[in-house]
Amino acid sequence: MTEVLLVPGVLFVVIVFLIVKVMLRERRSRTDNFDGQQIERQHSAQARDVRAANSSIAVHNRFVDGGNDWRPGKR
């Protein structure tokens, strides 16, 4: 009886392990090329800008100047 439960259990663990391994490999290979790295840098910069815009002093300044959220572009 133990062998009957052991064989499907081992097969299930091997299948799950292989699926996780393939998923991690696909996730890692996304930024192997230069374009992927550039996209990740842009997303990181956008996230930093959003965090900076939502800081307490930035929110206070927007309230004081009437909510004018326009900023000149970066050069």
Automatic annotation (TrEMBL):
Keywords: Membrane, Transmembrane, Transmembrane helix. The keyword Transmembrane applies. The keyword Transmembrane helix applies. The chain crosses the membrane at residues 6-24. This is Secreted protein. It comes from Streptomyces brevispora. The lineage of its organism: Bacteria, Bacillati, Actinomycetota, Actinomycetes, Kitasatosporales.
